């Protein structure tokens, strides 16, 4: 891959995805503005993100940008078209560790999963990595373990 | 109908009576990483079947246990957690259960008690384990001991679907336990059901 994505964001007017990338062949950093077409306040953010990711003219540049990040950027654009502020969109992605996510619908859950997916992608070992190991076994020392505070004030089973 | 799903071949659960076939179910809250764990274990092999009408994803896997080929069906929820309870057919004929929580969210750990209670209503004896996922987010959690399931003697695994820690080990051990359980079932209800099925077959004539 000769394009390395550095940062990816949105621009509201006209609605576009903005990508800062490095061209590995020339070692130059460039900005690419990808207009988001046929996207309205009623559009499906996840289908639009998938379409863009597979777009023949853009896919090589977007290879290093995850599907979930593109989904979140489309959610921000759609929120804007619906009249919501950027602050509103960003706070909807924030994850409250005490929130019961079982109660959310698909879209609400997708917003929350954004933050989790980011961490997942950051720590992810890919099967194409030269040092990839399929069966990673780590024995965690049982003796040095401290009691977990999550077990306090618990009823049966804990 | 108890989940026999006669019209949908994927949901025909009679196949789980065959010796070379086991069913393993995953339980746990939304977004604890159940599907990510499945995908990490199966890698390129995975071809999930989305049965969205049933809020269900099936993953098929072929394992080798003690020199024998075993077909494993993994049942994963696809949003059924939202109802705080699973359809009885989800538990029907399961041979093992993998219970997952997210080490970054206490509520997912606390909710294990509810999932476990429901599991035992349907499957009082099947082997079960507790899986602490996302340890890559904070390795310090591995220095803590989590007591849920200890009393019941359930194995506990610290895993990460992102970097792969202990994922393959956990799945292999659970497949082995599912096969062992199947060869030596102790669920009384299973035996009653089998007897009833035999009687029903005879009365057909």
What do these coordinates show?
The complex is a heterodimer of chains A (158) and B (205). Chain A is α+β, with helices and mostly antiparallel strands and 158 residues long. Chain A has one domain (3-151). In chain A, 34% of the residues lie in helices and 17% in strands. Chain A contains 5 helices and 4 strands. Chain A has a 3-stranded antiparallel beta sheet. The radius of gyration of chain A is 20 Å and the shape is flat. Chain A starts with a strand and ends in an 11-residue tail after the last strand. Residues 1-5 of chain B have low confidence and may be disordered. Chain B is built from 6 helices and 8 strands; from the N terminus they run E-H-E-E-E-H-E-H-H-E-E-E-H-H. Chain B has helices at 34-42, 88-91, 106-110, 112-122, 167-183, 188-204; strands at residues 21-27, 49-51, 56-65, 68-77, 96-102, 128-133, 144-145, 156-158. Chain B has a single domain (9-204), classed as Rossmann fold. Chain B has 205 residues and is of the alpha/beta class. The radius of gyration of chain B is 17 Å and the shape is globular. A 7-stranded mixed beta sheet of chain B has the order 2-3-4-1-5-6-8. Classes of the chains: A alpha+beta (158), B alpha/beta (205). The A-B interface holds A 97-106, 109, 112-113, 116, 119-120, 123-125, 127, 133-138, 140, 142, 144-148, 150-151, 154-158 and B 29-31, 33, 36, 43-44, 79, 81-82, 84, 104-107, 109-113, 116-117, 134, 136-137, 142-149, 151-152, 158, 160-169. Strand 4 (146-147) of chain A pairs parallel with strand 7 of chain B, so a sheet runs across the interface.
């Amino acid at each position: 891959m000769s394009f390395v994505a550095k940062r990816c964001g949105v621009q509201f007017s006209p609605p576009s995805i903005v990508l800062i990338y490095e061209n590995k062949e020339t070692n130059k950093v460039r900005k690419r503005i990808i207009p988001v077409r046929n996207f309205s306040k009623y559009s499906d953010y996840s289908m639009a993100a998938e379409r863009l990711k597979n777009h023949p003219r853009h896919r090589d540049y977007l290879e290093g940008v995850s599907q979930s990040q593109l989904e979140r950027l489309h959610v921000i654009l759609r929120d804007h078209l619906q009249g919501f502020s950027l602050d509103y969109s960003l706070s909807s992605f924030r994850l409250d560790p005490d929130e019961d996510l079982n109660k959310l619908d698909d879209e609400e859950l997708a917003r929350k999963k954004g933050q989790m997916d980011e961490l997942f992608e950051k720590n992810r070992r890919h099967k194409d990595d030269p040092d990839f190991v399929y069966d990673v076994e780590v024995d965690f020392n049982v003796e040095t373990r401290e009691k977990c505070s999550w077990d306090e004030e618990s009823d049966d089973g804990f | 109908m108890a989940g026999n799903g006669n019209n949908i071949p994927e949901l025909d659960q009679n196949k789980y009576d065959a010796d070379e076939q086991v069913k393993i179910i995953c339980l746990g809250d939304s977004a604890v990483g159940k599907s990510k764990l499945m995908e990490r274990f199966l890698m390129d092999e995975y071809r999930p079947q989305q049965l969205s009408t049933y809020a269900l994803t099936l993953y098929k896997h072929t394992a080798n246990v003690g020199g024998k080929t075993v077909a494993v069906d993994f049942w994963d929820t696809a949003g059924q957690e939202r109802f705080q309870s699973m359809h009885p057919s989800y538990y029907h004929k399961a041979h093992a259960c993998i219970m997952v929580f997210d080490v970054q969210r206490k509520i997912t750990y606390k909710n294990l008690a509810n999932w476990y209670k429901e599991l035992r209503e349907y499957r009082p004896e099947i082997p079960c384990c507790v899986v602490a996922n996302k340890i890559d987010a904070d390795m310090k959690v591995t220095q803590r001991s989590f007591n849920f399931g200890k009393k019941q003697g359930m194995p506990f695994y610290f895993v990460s679907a992102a970097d792969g820690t202990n994922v393959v080990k956990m799945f292999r051990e659970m497949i082995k336990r599912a096969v062992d359980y199947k060869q030596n079932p102790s669920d009384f209800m299973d035996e009653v059901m089998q007897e009833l099925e035999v009687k029903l077959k005879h009365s057909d004539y």
